[in-house]
Amino acid sequence: MTTYALTIEDAPLAADVEALAAGLTAHALPHTRGPGFKPLGAWLRDERGVFIGGAYGYVNWNWLFINLVWISESARGGGHGRRLILALEQAARERGCTHAHLDTFSFQARPFYEKLGYEVFSTLDDYPPGHQRFFMRKALGPSPG
After folding, report:
1. Considering the domain boundaries, does residue 17 fall inside one?
2. Residue-wise DSSP of 85-124
């Protein structure tokens, strides 16, 4: 019988993560007819090219998963977050997405996402302790034009 070594790693090798994704894709292909987890990002930079913020996620077949969104303190309140999310959604529509989902915390941006049409479909309480984690979704519909 073969023995396998099990390791727990705080900083996994990129090659190991890629092998994991490739294995999952190969397993799913008979059901999905196409690979998922295609990265997609929208970035915001100032006139000098300094990174100000962005929105990053994955296209999974017909769904956009928005994984990370951040705007620097100096640029908040200027509509940039809205611009980033709408641009990412449009890019996802152009790639065949009809829905989007994301998660946020009670100390973060739930009202922001609700103004953009996202609705809560599940909540985890006490995550982190004393707060909630909200899972949100939105129907994107077809690409306009």
Report:
1. no
2. HHHHHHHHHHTT--EEEEEEETTTTHHHHHHTT-EEEEEE
Residue 115 belongs to what domain range? Answer: 35-139
> Which helix (DSSP H) or strand (DSSP E) does residue 19 occupy?
helix 14-32
Cα distance between residue 89 and residue 98, in whole Å: 9
Q: Are 66 and 104 in contact (CB under 8 A)?
A: no
Mean pLDDT of all residues in 45-68: 97
pLDDT digits (tens, 9 = 90+) for 93-145: 999 999 999 999 999 999 999 999 999 999 999 999 999 999 999 999 876 55
- Distance of alpha carbon 68 from alpha carbon 13, whole angstroms: 21
pLDDT in tens, 21-34: 889 889 998 998 88
User: Could you tell me which residues are beta bridge partners of residue 91?
Assistant: none
Does residue 69 belong to any structural domain of this protein?
yes
Among 58, 104, 66, smallest CA distance to 85 is for 66
What is the value of pTM for the model shown? 0.89
Residue 145 lies in a domain: no
Query: Is the residue at 106 inside a domain?
Result: yes
When divided into structural domains, the chain yields a total of: 1
